[in-house]
Specification:
By secondary structure, the protein is α/β, with parallel strands linked by helices. It contains 10 helices and 13 strands. The radius of gyration is 17 Å and the shape is globular. The structure holds adenosine monophosphate.
């Protein structure tokens, strides 16, 4: 089943202790779409400027991603600059240039309006709500956000969250949103804001899933080489949602499996800068890591 993904497409400049890259392909929707496309067809909605390299458009087209909803506008593409220190889990934002996103009004093409799976990837929460107003009867609405919006658009974000079924945040964002520290309390507070299911991403330490009375705790997949964590959260979301859309089911077992798939997809992203490694991930490389993950966690 197709997934509608709305979020940022970006040119990222990233520095980590292991290297740096300038103005490479990034953006919340980009990572999520490429990740989800391994499982289900994706319809992408977003905006780029005239400076967005054509080779990146071609890359997205080559995946199972429909770009009818991608607008190319006069002006510059969204740019994000970030840095990681030896704590690879927290990015420090050095600058955010909204550029064409500043005046962007999402227009959902007619053929996308029946989408059953909708992912509001990290983007201004006002735009996230505008998307929901145009979608007819989604089965599941997923949402991600970040410290920038939690701090600057809190009221709007809380309004958007009332319409969300599954909220995915990293631990620091979840604490910032709820004002709680302990993860059980954080999850409880998140669920009171609207979403019935919450996923808290713990970076290299794994992920937590809270739904109803159930809690699932998955450790991080042990990787030998981590180069750049940018996009790991969005990639996780893409794999998680892609798996749910593929199975078309929603129960504890499938949700847990989706967390595992999200985690595995994120491992590809962190192994190289930008989408370099994620882009090359195939079903057999995912299945190989699934087996390794089972061996790693069984007791
Ligand atoms: P992640 O590492 O998964 O949290 O997401 C990293 C991606 O988020 C980068 O590729 C950025 O381009 C994008 N990003 C950073 N800041 C923002 C923002 N304020 N709004 C939308 N996307 C953003």
């Amino acid at each position: 089943m197709s997934i509608l993904i709305v979020g940022s497409l970006a040119l990222d400049s990233v520095k980590t202790p292991l290297g740096k890259r300038k103005e490479v392909l990034g953006g919340s929707a980009t990572y999520a779409a490429v990740s989800a496309s391994l499982y289900s067809p994706v319809n992408l909605v977003g905006v780029v400027g005239k400076d967005f390299p054509k080779k990146y458009i071609k890359m997205l087209e080559k995946k199972n991603i429909d770009l009818q909803g991608l607008e190319v506008q006069k002006g510059k593409t969204f740019r994000w600059k970030g840095e990681y220190t030896w704590n690879f889990n927290d990015a420090k934002t050095l600058s955010t240039e909204l550029n064409v996103f500043a005046k962007f009004k999402p227009h959902i093409p007619e053929s996308y309006r029946d989408s059953k799976y909708v992912f509001l990837a990290n983007i201004d929460p006002a735009l996230q709500e505008e998307v929901l107003e145009q979608v007819k009867k989604p089965k599941l609405v997923f949402c991600d956000t970040m410290n920038h919006w939690i701090a600057s658009k809190r009221k709007q974000l809380l309004k958007t969250l009332k319409k969300v079924d599954i909220l995915l945040l990293n631990d620091a964002e979840a604490r910032q949103l709820t004002g709680e520290v302990n993860m059980i309390k954080v999850a409880r507070a998140m669920r009171k804001l609207g979403p019935k299911t919450v996923v808290i991403k713990l970076g290299e330490h794994g992920a937590l899933l809270f739904t109803g009375k159930h809690v699932f705790c998955l450790p991080g997949f042990l990787l030998e080489s981590v180069v750049d964590p940018t996009g790991a959260g969005d990639t996780f979301a893409g794999g998680f949602i892609g798996y749910l859309a593929k199975t078309k089911k929603l129960n504890q077992k499938v949700l847990r499996e989706a967390v595992v798939h999200g985690s595995i997809m994120a491992t590809f992203t962190v192994e190289d800068f930008s989408l370099n490694k994620l882009y090359k991930a195939r079903k057999n490389s995912v299945n190989k890591r699934l087996k390794e993950f089972k061996r790693l966690t069984v007791f």
